Amino acid sequence: MDQQTRQALKHDQFVDTAQHGIEWATDNRRTLILVGSIVGVLIVVLAIGAFIFNHRSEQAATAFGEALQSYQSPLAAPGQQVPPGVKTFPSAAERARAANQLFLKVADNYGMTASGKLARYFAGLTYIEAGQPAQAESTLKQVAGGWNGDLSSLAKLALAQLYRQTGRDAQAIEVYNDLTAHPSSSVPAGTAQLQLADLYETENKPEMAKKIYAQLKDKDAKGPAGMIAAQKLNPSPAGAAPVAQ
């Protein structure tokens, strides 16, 4: 096949391809117009959706701030003088119950926002403080199973504490080991290991606790977990004066 023939074939193939495109466009002109209109509508819908989401995110952040402020309200005994306009609670449990309702409202109304997800976590914490372990466990498990790794780790850490409070040390140990194997910025491995060592101390297993402290001291000598571990291994005598520099 000579050069001229090859060029002619290539040209014919290009023409066929182009012609096919033209024919398809002609046959589907109405469809293209419709698709173009749909795309235009979708762009508008997405823009409106983004505006609404941002607006709801702002509303969620405001509502979460109010719930958190309630949770941080001071405690005051009946009859105790407090500054005018300052809301107080007679006990931590009552404060937790009041804040819990606010956190749940934020979580239910704005569950798709960051503040809504964070509110669900705080709802779990306040359930614990209010003395409602079953509700706390259910809520924290929901957060622990979410896509946000940092929030999931915090929920797991709270679950481990709940397990310890309710006499389920074996489950707490499983959670601490999982957090150690899958650290996050919110719960580094050292934090989980310190909690595990503390659990062993409460179980009267000092040797297991010391083993963890020694490992942390070697692996993270200058980090916060390593420094705490070093103090645990070599506690200062009670009443000892600090060494002069």
Automatic annotation (TrEMBL):
Pfam families: TPR_21. It comes from the Bacteria. SUPFAM superfamilies: TPR-like. The keyword Transmembrane helix applies. InterPro entries: SecYEG/CpoB_TPR, TPR-like_helical_dom_sf. The chain crosses the membrane at residues 32-53. Residues 38-223 form the Ancillary SecYEG translocon subunit/Cell division coordinator CpoB TPR domain. Keywords: Membrane, Transmembrane, Transmembrane helix. This is Putative negative regulator of RcsB-dependent stress response. It comes from Edaphobacter modestus.
